[in-house]
Amino acid sequence: MITLTEFRSLFHNGLIKQNTGLIQLLGLCPLLAISNNVINALSLGIATMLVMAASSGAVSSVRHFVPNEIRIPVFVLIIAVLVTVIDLAMNAFVHPLYLVLGIFIPLITTNCIVLARADAFAAKNHPLHSVIDAMAMGLGLTLVLVVLGAIREIAGKGTLFSGIDLVFGEASKSLVLHVLPNYQGFLLAVLPPGAFIALGLLIAANNWQKTRVEQRTRAAALVHA
Amino acid sequence: MSFTIAGRNALRTGTILFVFALVGTALLAFTHDRTEPTILRGQQAEKLALLSQVLPAALYDNDLLASQQAVPPDDLLGTRQASSLWVAQRGGAFSGVVLEAVASDGYSGDIALLIGIDANGTVTGVRVTAHRETPGLGDYIERAKSPWIDQFVGKSLQNPEPKRWKVTKDGGAFDARAGATITPRAVVKAVKSALDYFAQHRATFKVSPAQETPP
Q1: How far apart, in whole angstroms, are the C-alpha atoms of residue A120 and residue A69?
Q2: How many domains, chain B?
Q3: Each residue's pLDDT tens digit, B172-185
Q4: Considering the entire predicted model, what is its pTM?
């Protein structure tokens, strides 16, 4: 079983300490390609999280049967099978959602964070821990994606949640926020360079925040000494 | 037969890898088998929905999807590979056609179009099915982004006259947004030449005999 402390440390790890988007900088290809609006970012984030949880769980359950030398091919095989099964099942049973997420699903396979977590964590830990670790990592990625998507969407188009109707149906169309009315649009933010610039700014902000916290604790330590 | 320890180890790992591959393949084959009919049905429905966006359902009573025919590459259609067309029929008479066309002089790569034309040579609808125009600038040719593409509905080679089949900036009859005229110029030209293609091949559009009497 998992203790509360372990649970907390797994989430702290996934969301802050080893955040895939800001610290590990893994899986940037889909991150940069899809983060041009909030809805795309959220959809890809959630899809990646689910694939990670499923693959980490599967890898962890068979970890005792996989010899060390062939672990990478076996993990790749497991992830590829899982992604394809999810892709086919979504295409068949939730077609409208598939039309939105369809292009992202194969992108998930290219996301090395899935394999990285399978190899670095799931291969050495209990399935329950592995699934929770994958969820935390996926959640961390989703958060970065959504923030990035929001920055790019506001800067690029002046809206938020555009395209929400593709995921939640026509009724939700009224939820699209026009943050900056009569905005002319800023093309750079929507194009790939905008993704790099926005991610750079996010990483810088995160690092700045980290240094500030460190300095403060150091200063506090000095005072106490 | 005897193996060295290393050989035995390799055989063991090989077998394990093989078993994993076998289970994985079986799982995939099973899922594929289970989902294939549903996916095919979904694709057909999607295609029909797309066709009915360019050709009103009231115009035909035949099985439009089954009327699909191959068209060899054609300069007027802008196609470099074989494309498809769908022949519409109502009450046994030819009532329209859906053509696939390509506008290759867009701002960035080919623009794939689906164009519906009725028996009189009037455009019933145009949709962009694939393009790589600049997002936020040239992508207003997509129906999901703006109704721009709807202005082709009801147009023919006589209306407007051929020399006015241009964007307004070039003295034509078709609107285009300032700053992004290359994309609409390409689309207007492609629709015009698809109409030319229609005029030339008008007599050859026929539903194949096998489908003339629906079962």
Answers
A1: 15
A2: 2
A3: 889 888 778 889 99
A4: 0.69
